[in-house]
């Protein structure tokens, strides 16, 4: 199948201030807080953004829309993001840039082996870092002409989205969680806490992950984590 996109020439041309103008980014990310950071990065760069919160939703989206760039979180509630990376890497016509995203940098090799073009380490809040990574994967004709001033600002995602994440994971842990739910909660909260610069929550998520990795009972670590989540849900003053 021809890999040339006939609509590429009709896209708005990027500018120095909006280097990703004309591009659409599909972000497959279950954290609303992390996704809001990506929304702001795309907005500041001129790109449109679409979001899917799981692999199933992403596959439905891809049946209808063709994004320019796909960013896939590796830890999703219904599977490993590398599975979708492998599918998209082999599909034709191929998206212009296919990136994996995770707070666990040791997963970069796995993502690249599956066919990813690049890797974004969480938390990602630097506009300059985001733009440089995306542009490094795009063809020259999608680069802005002339010199470009790097935007050294960082984005600050909406704290209400963080509350949504806390409510989501509280539901995951509400009933006696099974092994999958515990592993998912530890992975999810590690990334969210790091983005929110919430060290106690990050440490508690790491403690749960460590116990799970050893195959040991983690009732105490789960209770501590659930308590921290409830405390953050009850703290509305900062919002």
Automatic annotation (TrEMBL):
It comes from Sulfitobacter porphyrae. This is Response regulator. Keywords: Phosphoprotein. The modification 4-aspartylphosphate is found at residue 73. The keyword Phosphoprotein applies. The keyword Phosphoprotein applies. It holds the Pfam family Response_reg. Residues 24-137 form the Response regulatory domain.
